[in-house]
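assembly run, all chains below
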Amino acid sequence: MGARRPTLESLATELGVSRQTVWNVLNRPSVVAEPTRERVAAAVDAAGYVPSRAGRQLRTQRSHAIGIRLMPTFDGINGHILDTFVHELAEHAHRSDYRLALFAAANEADEIATYARMRAANEIDGVVLTSTTIDDERIAWLLENDVPFVSFGRPWRRDVDASTAPHDWVDVDGAAGTEAVTRRLLADGHSRIGYLSWPAQPDVGGDRLAGWQRAMRDASDERDLSTLIAECSNDVTDARRAARQLLDRGVTAVVCASDTLALGARAALGARSADARRVPIVGFDDTPVARALGISSVAQPIVRAARTSVSLLVSRLAEERPPEHVLLSPSPVFRDSEIATPSLFESVGTIQEKEITNP
Amino acid sequence: MGARRPTLESLATELGVSRQTVWNVLNRPSVVAEPTRERVAAAVDAAGYVPSRAGRQLRTQRSHAIGIRLMPTFDGINGHILDTFVHELAEHAHRSDYRLALFAAANEADEIATYARMRAANEIDGVVLTSTTIDDERIAWLLENDVPFVSFGRPWRRDVDASTAPHDWVDVDGAAGTEAVTRRLLADGHSRIGYLSWPAQPDVGGDRLAGWQRAMRDASDERDLSTLIAECSNDVTDARRAARQLLDRGVTAVVCASDTLALGARAALGARSADARRVPIVGFDDTPVARALGISSVAQPIVRAARTSVSLLVSRLAEERPPEHVLLSPSPVFRDSEIATPSLFESVGTIQEKEITNP
DNA sequence: CTGAAAGCGCTTACAG
DNA sequence: CTGAAAGCGCTTACAG
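ok done. output:
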């Protein structure tokens, strides 16, 4: 390696042409005479010249970087899907010559503050938002400050439909997923199919719940489905408690809002009779845990979601256009595995952890 | 928000001072007279001025960015630990005013090519390497090309000790972890403690194996430990097969190179008698899966590893100094949970997946 | 088709 | 203590 990085200037001097000509060879080759073009191109290759990002950025006022917050690893089971999303995002962004500027934030206010700083420093051209919540403050802020962005997750609002949102979003049709698995269970002869839900709200949880409701309403005249629903937080122990309620009410299958909840439901089966243990459980996200334990689930098309997010954001950075909304379909994955038995899960929630000091 | 970003120039003009004075207020305030300083500082705040990253970068030839490859999510169980590492890295890098430039790569050659391009474009100042392998080509390349870096993971060499490495590294003392859990099992009265290993090599797998060996050699005169070791790939199904061999040889406890293997070992217990099912299994990494299933494990101090990696790299970028090597101690986590029973795992490895098409 | 020039916004060496 | 100037490496508008 030489003493210094090559620049347009140094290459031009070396070749006895102007800076502009070197630039033309790289960016508008058709405009340069053949012999010059070949001579310059060869020198560029030999020198391993790559345009300085800073120089370009200063001139064009574009950083070619996309801001993305790495969400806290709150769960590790369902959280895995976001890690996969970020991985795919990095891959596809690179192909479009964009970089991912990764950061961590303690909460939404901190996240917004980071966007503000990064924008002020001209450090990012746009943002990919994940894990949208009801009346998401981040969306409001980004819109208000004209920051180009795409959200992976619909802009959940209590009274406004996501289809009217003034910004791009990509999401997975959770309702279609839970509806498909519920219909499948109905077709298999189940009629009392329980649903293990996060607290009902008009967000991703409400969406998944709605799919189960659609299938159930379709299948029976029974209007009151409420006894078949149990609520819990996204926690294995709490899910086990809620699943027990459902089993007590005689459900013969359980559809869950997440794989974490499905794991809790498995645990609840443990204490039951052999018959009860055959109750099929379906999770959501098709995480490594579901795969390893043979739990049925609903797989999100995460690679397509990432690819679509990048392409929407990149096109928005290139040109004005109306907002686009993309709803992708998930794929149910049924696994025929035997059902959990008591002892494995018996102690979940009362696990005693002891740390022993290292020698 | 005004029409344009404020700059040193625009602020200076507005305030009737020179660009230099504004800069001094921000970077060497002691040199500016009190009244000027206050007036300027107030204007800077009001305008929300943040120095342009590109301008600074062009002038200083420093990007203040750290390159990091997001590893493929090959496993999702033990892979989780790297996601956590990257998350913490982002957090600590930000505190030192560094950005994480994230990228994906298909393999090591691709990873190296990406470093080369990013360096040529002056896009990154340094690199954090993860998942080091034997005679790691990436390390050789980075050293040869004078790219500042720190590796999370020792530079494994067949014939050279990591302590002589000419570069910074941070690692977790895997051997100390497996040794501690093995000693604990010995203290609990176990003598035939099996070890479920990745193929033995002088790398992270060999390191973890060595800890178990130390404890076992110490505890008995029996020189030949080979019948207590079974090898397998990092895969639940293969681990189950290997664990069965160990059980057939009468082991009363199993220490594993990873939580993924521990999950396989759990599965192997399933088909055994009630007695056999009490065989304690210990994994490695204390992943969400281990926590959810109540499997004992060894927790890596991942937050400290990330913080140390950032501080080593940042200090290296600031000044010449001899290489530093940091070996952190992991913490065994014992969980008293009952042991796996047959049916849950019976079908692992022969799981039938069926996708049903969405409506 | 080729070249000379301006300017993006910083930091730094230097003059007053 | 304050200010005028140079230059990092690009891209782009313009002159020949």
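Confidence is low (pLDDT under 50) at residues 338-359 of chain B.

The two ends of chain B are 47 Å apart (CA to CA).

not gonna interpret more than that til we talk
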